[in-house]
Design brief:
The protein is α/β, with parallel strands linked by helices. Helix content is 34%, strand content 22%. Helix 1 packs parallel to helix 10 and helix 3 packs antiparallel against helix 5.
Length: 276
């Protein structure tokens, strides 16, 4: 067996591990499988919730845990049960919806048993195809009212926006003081309000402690702003070539390959093992 160097590798999913067409390359699958067979530990940390990511990590043959919703939910892959779970408060969930409604945004409210959308349009259909999970639409009342009446405490509230409007929407939402929450983005067209106590950074530290791995022997790999806490928490933080410029500035290294060019598999092979 090959000798492991970095004992735990934690990777973002969309824009990092998966290609734009939604597929995971054979090279990535092979590299991850060989790494875990040799004693390394590999985990996915994503903005998606468990019902959108569990089938994909099972596709990779992983059987440990998966970190969902920016670290607010950590799920046992085999049982599907939560190991850690932290939602927004009911009041903050309502507030997030209200502020997004003021901007006329396409809103998703994420709960443990599914997600709700305030629009049923082509953008939603595109999103459903990407995450492979259908939304429950709320079009007979404002989604903030639905949240209030059903006493929902969401894991996150997401807005789908035009790429060119992303910075403007983040700036507008950031003017509001959301109690216990922060504004971030998980893709150029996805702006999110999440529980400020949890992040991909807290998830990395949780995994390192759970598996008894010194944080300096953990690699974090990502492409978006919501990956910055993970990149900064890990012993080695790597931004893929297609990463957001802000993430690249936070990373220890900017890798020379994109998600379309098997970046994660290459990182596993290059950094996962000691020199022989």
């Amino acid at each position: 067996m090959r000798k492991i160097n970095y004992r735990l590798i934690v990777s973002d999913f969309d824009g990092t591990l998966v290609r734009e067409d939604g597929s995971i390359s054979d090279k990535n699958k092979k590299a991850i499988a060989e790494y875990t067979q040799n004693g390394g530990m590999f985990a996915v940390s994503t903005g998606r919730l468990h019902y959108g990511i569990l089938p994909r990590v099972k596709e990779l043959g992983l059987n440990g845990v998966v970190c969902c919703c920016q670290g607010a939910v950590i799920i046992d892959i085999l049982s599907g049960e939560p190991i850690l779970s932290g939602t927004l408060s009911h009041e903050t969930t309502i507030q997030a919806c209200v502020e997004m409604e003021k901007l006329g945004l396409h809103i998703h409210v994420y709960c443990f048993d599914g997600y709700y959308s305030n629009m049923d349009d082509d953008a939603l259909k595109m999103y459903e195809r990407a995450v492979r999970v259908k939304a429950k639409t709320v079009i007979d009342m404002p989604i903030s009212q639905f949240v209030k009446e059903n006493k929902i405490c969401a894991y996150k509230v997401l807005a789908m926006v035009a790429v060119e409007d992303s910075a403007k929407v983040i700036a507008a939402l950031s003017k509001t003081a959301f109690d216990g929450a922060c504004v971030t983005k998980s893709a150029d067209f996805l702006v999110e309000i999440v529980n400020a106590e949890y992040s991909k950074g807290t998830a990395v530290r949780f995994l390192a402690e759970r598996y008894g791995v010194p944080i300096e022997k953990v690699i974090g790999v990502g492409d978006q702003n919501n990956d910055i806490p993970m990149i900064e928490a890990a012993g080695l933080g790597i931004a893929v070539k297609n990463a957001d410029e802000e993430l690249k500035r936070a990373a220890n290294r900017v890798y020379g390959y994109t998600n379309e060019e098997d970046a994660v598999g290459r990182i596993v092979e290059e950094y996962g093992y000691t020199e022989e």
